[in-house]
Amino acid sequence: MGNVFSIFGSGDSVPDIPLDLDCTNTKPDEVEVYKYATKILQPTEAVLKSLKQYTGCGELIRKAISTPNRQNEEEAWNALCPSVSKLKDYYEFAQKIAEAFPQLLKKLCTGNVENNLRNYQTVLKCFGDVLHFVSQWDDLKMTNPAIQNDFSYYRRTLQRNKGNQSDKIPVQDELANKMSLFYAYSTPMLKIITDATLECINNVCKIN
Q1: Is 208 helix (H, G, I), strand (E, B) or coil?
Q2: Which of 65, 66, 110, 113 maximizes the CB count within 10 A of its CB?
Q3: How far apart are CA 109 and CA 113, in angstroms?
Q4: CA-based R_g, the chain, Å
Q5: Three state DSSP letters for the chain
């Protein structure tokens, strides 16, 4: 990723690279990557809308903690399960973004980066769309503590509810552990695409 940005911060004159935001001149050798990325990016608006509307279960959780009884705990759990299902959806979408991002980066960084930025405008737009989405999603997550609070309470009560309501477990232990690591970061989307990029560089990509 540094190769893409380095040409804009090398101390020399910034290259004049026009942007075709309407993608009117997609090159044949970028079509495959473009179609793959746009298919993955299609739900981004719905994902952001869902996250904006995420209110959490704070009141019911506080009630269950301050006055622990079966009714309060069941009310908190029943409200929590749909919320955790949403958190699961966000996490799974992040995995897809992490798969797509290195492919875009590889297309832009293999060979002459400046020429690629000029020639592969459709891929460049997808690259920008991913970064824009990541920034928006992380910003929403950082300003909504209910996400972390909900999932922390879910993990604390998971074992107990496994026995009582085994048919209402939206996320099992193994996935819950992975999601917990994901949501622990203040900017989890940025973290996941950074990790995916580093793994690509180390194992697959030959970036000049």
Answers
A1: coil
A2: 113
A3: 5
A4: 21
A5: CHHHHHCCCCCCCCCCCCCCCCCCCCCHHHHHHHHHHHHHHCCHHHHHHHHHCCCCCHHHHHHHHHCCCHHHHHHHHHHHHHHHHHHHHHHHHHHHHHHHHHHHHHHHHCCCHHHHHHHCHHHHHHHHHHHHHHHHHHHHHHCCCHHHHHHHHHHHHHHHHHHHCHHHCCCCHHHHHHHHHHHHCCCHHHHHHHHHHHHHHHHCCCCC
pLDDT in tens, 110-145: 888 888 888 899 999 999 999 999 999 999 999 999
- Residue 69's alpha-carbon distances to 10, 64, 72, 116, in angstroms, are 63, 7, 6, 62
Q: Residue-wise over 63-88: b if at least 16 C-beta within 10 A, else e?
A: bbeeeeeeebbeebbebbbebbebbb
CA–CA gap between residue 196 and residue 202 (Å, rounded)? 10
**Inside any domain, residue 116:** yes
The reply to whether 13 falls in a domain is no
Residue 5 resides in a domain: no
How many domains does one find in the chain? 1
Q: What is the pLDDT of residues 4-59, one digit of tens each?
A: 444 444 455 556 666 666 666 788 999 999 999 999 999 999 999 999 999 999 99
If DSSP states are collapsed to H, E and C, what string results for 114-130? HHHHHHCHHHHHHHHHH
Q: Give residue 195's domain range.
A: 26-203
